TrEMBL record:
SUPFAM superfamilies from the UniProt entry: DNase I-like
The name this protein goes by in its record: Endonuclease/exonuclease/phosphatase family protein
Stored Pfam families: Exo_endo_phos
Keyword DNA-binding: no
Record-annotated Endonuclease/exonuclease/phosphatase domain positions: 139-316
Provenance organism: Paeniglutamicibacter terrestris
TM segment ranges: 24-44, 59-76, 83-106
Alphabetical UniProt keywords: Endonuclease, Hydrolase, Membrane, Nuclease, Transmembrane, Transmembrane helix
Gene Ontology MF: a single term: endonuclease activity
Length: 328
């Protein structure tokens, strides 16, 4: 009799343990779902202590992986509440990043009779393949080629290799631009650094002038991104004060579009989506790209194509963007 009465008590204790574990798991799911949603939505508000803000900002799209982990726990918990709560970070991620990953091909205007294609790449100093990068971009029908991380020798080699097709060029420090169209009013920009890592010039086309800025922003590391922040801030100020109607800024910004320091420049210039959607990550090239540090930003111009490509042996993928020329 005592043996039989002990069985229900054992079963009851087992059910209680399962119930407690499921409740605890459900609590973890709710906590994880709300935490990940808050980080996705407000990562730029997290204090930049020990470089945490920089890391969160630039890896923000990857916070979606946390949602997947929380989703696995939600399935294990077998709780309807957990699955409903999981919708909060999912919808937050889609609301935050969804508009930026819609394919440009869905909404891009048709290419006009006159277009301008720009190719830009950080060629990675020391690889010795600046010329290969330039020729790869030239083969992609680029009308303007912008390169960053140049040294004196590589810039001269690029000029020699491109001279027949791109007779107009301007090089400043580590940045250079080569053009099929005449370049006027070219000037160096230090953007607060005290040395030159940027330039501006006017591209003269039959349809009118286009003001371009080529930028190689200072490096950004946890607890070491003051110079980069200053460059981006001064670039935004310079562009904001620029009276030209048609402007393009391109190069290696050493910041993703989700970086809080990038916000000032994205307030005055627009970045088009990728032709085939998603984020168009450009760095590192191998084993796979994890963030987009290289950008083409525009004002007053219709973008018909925007994509990335491999060129040379750089650790950055190149960006290729085509715009309709003014009046077309």
């Amino acid at each position: 009799m005592s043996s039989n009465s002990a069985l229900p008590r054992v079963a009851t204790r087992s059910r209680h343990r399962r119930t407690r574990s499921h409740r605890f798991l459900r609590f973890l799911v709710i906590l994880g779902a709300l935490s990940s949603a808050l980080l996705i939505a407000f990562h730029q508000r997290v204090p930049d202590l020990f470089g945490l803000g920089l890391l969160l900002d630039n890896f923000a799209p990857w916070l979606g992986l946390a949602v997947i982990v929380v989703g696995l726990f939600a399935i294990i918990s077998r709780s309807r509440t957990s699955l409903v709560v999981l919708l909060i970070p999912v919808l937050t991620w889609l609301f935050t990043f969804g508009p930026g990953i819609i394919p440009l091909s869905w909404t891009a205007p048709a290419a006009a009779s006159s277009t301008l294609t720009l190719g830009s790449q950080n060629i990675k100093a020391g690889t010795g393949t600046a010329t290969e990068s330039a020729l790869d971009l030239a083969s992609g029908s680029s009308d303007i080629i912008a390169l960053q991380e140049l040294d004196e020798n590589s810039a001269q080699r690029v000029t020699t290799a491109l001279d027949a097709q791109y007779p107009h060029h301007f090089v400043v420090g580590t940045v250079g631009v080569w053009s099929k169209y005449p370049l006027v009013n070219s000037r160096a920009l230090d953007l607060g650094l005290g040395w030159k890592r940027a330039l501006s010039a006017q591209v003269q086309t039959d349809a009118g002038n286009i003001q371009i800025y080529v930028v190689h922003a200072a490096s950004a590391r946890p607890n070491d991104h003051v110079d980069r922040d200053e460059m981006l801030s001064q670039l935004a100020t310079t562009v904001s004060a620029d009276s030209h109607q048609n402007i393009i800024a391109l190069g290696d910004f050493n910041a993703t579009s989700t970086d809080r320091a990038f916000q000032k420049i994205s307030d005055v210039l627009d970045e088009p989506n990728q032709d085939n959607g998603l984020f168009g990550f450009t760095w590192p090239q191998t084993p796979f790209a994890m963030m987009r540090l290289d950008h083409v930003l525009v004002r007053g111009l219709d973008v018909t194509s925007n994509t990335t490509a491999n060129a040379g042996l750089s650790d950055h993928r190149a960006v290729l963007t085509t715009v309709n020329l003014p009046g077309n």
